[in-house]
User: Which sequence fits this backbone?
């Protein structure tokens, strides 16, 4: 298998998904095999464990999902595309808002702002044939994730910028406490920071009917009740329900190597496009597809975002 290098963004030729995924541990064909086959059992053991973890606290970890050689390949692709990263520094509240809301007090979560300093590589930065794209679009991977999430089918996120991305935290950067606008996120840690860059989350602090301001305020003030730190290693795939769980990536220390994470975004319905405001914050631009989708958008809940 040929590999990309950090000096080149040329596409790579990939022929087998098994070159990228630890199929001995996660046999992607196991679902279709007879129950007597070991691969069938291994597939459903992985799925049932993920389901149990998602039910318990909205977070599941498929350890060593990506092979070590594929992790190196993914990192080469990220480094090659890194010049196209949109880096930005803002002060945001957990809902990605940047302005004070006079309807709330100064110490309210809505008016509590923290530095966000990180970068995102947009979806249109990847070559048409690469390991990142192959993992993202593989029907077998989509089906495995759907089984873990206990839903019938997943679609690749149609957003041309936010569907397939990489999150970059260079030395000194952080991604503060926030909520996601989508129901769940799928990430693969590719390169950890030497120090810092830890994923922390507080599961289920709000619901569709309750913003949970009291708990959120305590966490923003430095409280640790209910906070969990996930021990991620390169190649680990994480499924995370970030719509209702406050989460962050802690600051990468000044002397550390950058933290690189691949983000694979999926949706329940086809044709979904991201919000204009959030897209501009993360990628520094929007496309006509975003503006058209905003005009047609119907909200699923009344949360702040």
Assistant:
């Amino acid at each position: 298998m040929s590999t990309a290098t950090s000096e080149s963004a040329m596409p790579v030729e990939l022929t087998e998904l098994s070159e990228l995924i630890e199929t001995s541990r996660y046999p992607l064909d196991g679902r279709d095999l007879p129950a007597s086959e070991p691969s069938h059992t291994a597939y459903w053991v992985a799925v049932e464990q993920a389901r149990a973890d998602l039910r318990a606290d909205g977070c599941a970890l498929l350890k060593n999902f990506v092979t070590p050689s594929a992790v190196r390949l993914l990192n080469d692709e990220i480094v090659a595309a890194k010049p196209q990263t949109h880096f930005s520094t803002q002060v945001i509240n957990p809902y990605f808002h940047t302005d004070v809301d006079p309807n709330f007090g100064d110490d309210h979560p809505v008016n509590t702002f923290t530095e966000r300093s990180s970068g995102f590589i947009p979806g249109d930065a990847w070559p048409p044939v690469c390991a990142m794209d192959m993992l993202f679009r593989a029907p077998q991977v989509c089906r495995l994730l759907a089984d873990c999430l206990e839903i019938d089918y997943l679609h690749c996120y149609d957003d041309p910028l936010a569907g397939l991305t990489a999150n970059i935290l260079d030395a000194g950067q952080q991604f503060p406490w926030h909520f996601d606008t989508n129901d769940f996120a799928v990430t693969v840690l590719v390169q950890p920071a030497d120090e810092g860059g830890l994923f922390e989350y507080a599961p289920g602090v709000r619901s569709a009917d309750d913003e949970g301001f009291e708990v959120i305020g305590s966490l923003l003030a430095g409280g640790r009740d209910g906070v969990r730190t996930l021990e991620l290693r390169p190649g680990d795939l994480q499924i995370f329900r970030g719509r209702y769980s406050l989460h962050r990536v802690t600051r990468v220390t000044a002397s550390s190597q950058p933290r690189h994470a691949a983000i694979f975004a999926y949706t329940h319905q086809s044709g979904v496009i991201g919000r204009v405001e959030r897209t501009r914050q993360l990628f520094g631009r929007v496309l006509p597809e975003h503006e058209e989708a905003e005009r047609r958008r119907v909200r699923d809940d009344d949360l702040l975002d």
Q: What stands out?
A: The longest strand covers residues 114-121. The helical segments are 38-57, 68-81, 131-137, 139-149, 213-220, 276-283, 288-296. The CA atoms of residues 3 and 276 lie 35 Å apart. Residues 1-11 have pLDDT under 50 and may be disordered.
